[in-house]
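Task 17 of the worksheet. Students: predict the tertiary structure of the chain below and write it out as structure tokens. Keep your answer in the requested format; marks are given for formatting as well as content.
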Amino acid sequence: MDIKVEKKQAFRFRNPILIGVAILAFVSVVLIIKPNTSASVHAQDIWTGIVKQGDLHQQVAAFGRLKSRKPRLLTAQSNAIVDEIVLKPGAMVTPNSVIVRLSDPQIEQQVKDAQRELVQIKNQYKQLEINQQREVLSQQARLELLQAELESAELEVKALGQLIEKGIASNIDYQRRVLEQRQLTRRLDIEQKRLSQLEELHLANLAIAQSNIESEQEALTLISEVHQNLTIRAGISGVLQSLDVELGQSVNQGQRLALVGSTTDLYAQVSVPQAYMQQIALSQTVEVDTRAGLISGEVIRIDPVITNGSVQVEVKLNSQLTKNARPELNIAANIHIGTVKNALYIEKPVNAKADTNTTLFMLQQDGDTAIAKTLQYGSEAQDTIQIISGAQPNQRYILSDMSRWQEHAAISIVQ
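Model answer:
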């Protein structure tokens, strides 16, 4: 008896939906195991940095200039014409350095007139002294004559007195001589008083004449100072910062001519972007770079007014100035605003901004692949920026501009 054996057919997937799900799952696993690296970049076209952990010293970069704390503004003391320009901006000066020479014919004539007037008044003084001496001598001569007449009268009175005692001379003659003696005595006393008054009058006249001399001397001194001020000198040691006139230019009294700044008493004035102004405070330490060295300082004034998107900050310089330090020198400065303890940080990537989220490519250990990762930035320093989340110490990231690869989850690094 033949037994009919039925053949079993092999199991087949006849449902196309199940087949599609299986294929999608397989692709997903492959992508998870190895990301799509269809994009590639040459290793020499990128630069990288390693995530570090430690104290992050926060700084704000600023730019500005050195300023003289005691500048000297030179102005015209009278209306004049620029006759000669001796020095130009940037020249080192001493207090007696001549910067500009002005000319004014009227001032020069007034000086000559005042000099002649002073000479004339001094000559009048000398003439007055001579005349007074003549008057005194004349009065003294009269006194001498009266004195001689008085002595002669006294002798006659004495002689007649002796003769009267002997009965030889007349009493009338004696009394007449006594009267003459008395009159001569009075005249001599009057003339002596006249001499004293004359001397007092002479002293008063000399004082008036001397006052006139002093007055004219003061007038000459004033006009001479105006004339001397036509030669514009620096007045202090330093550098000529600016010159505001040209040769042959007419200037008015009080017009600005030049500005001289000291090279020893300087401070820094820097501009801080408005975005960082809330982080700037008084007494913060500052490092000023003059391109020839560093100068330490501290913030001593913050301008309350925002100008062109920045705030002006005044910095006191505490250490020795560099050799090239001078007023109006362009400088860079780093203001230390604080320190974040035990922070994760990395060298600042291109276009990195504090307190933002960004995507960076992290290099794998083989160095041939970089995977996109989202990081959260914190505060920034001059060359570094804090990483709050998304990274671990010793991870290496691409720091160059990778904006055109942002749509890729991974890229290949071509050596």
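Marker's comment: Helices lie at 16-33, 105-166, 171-228. Residues 1-14, 26-37 have pLDDT under 50 and may be disordered.
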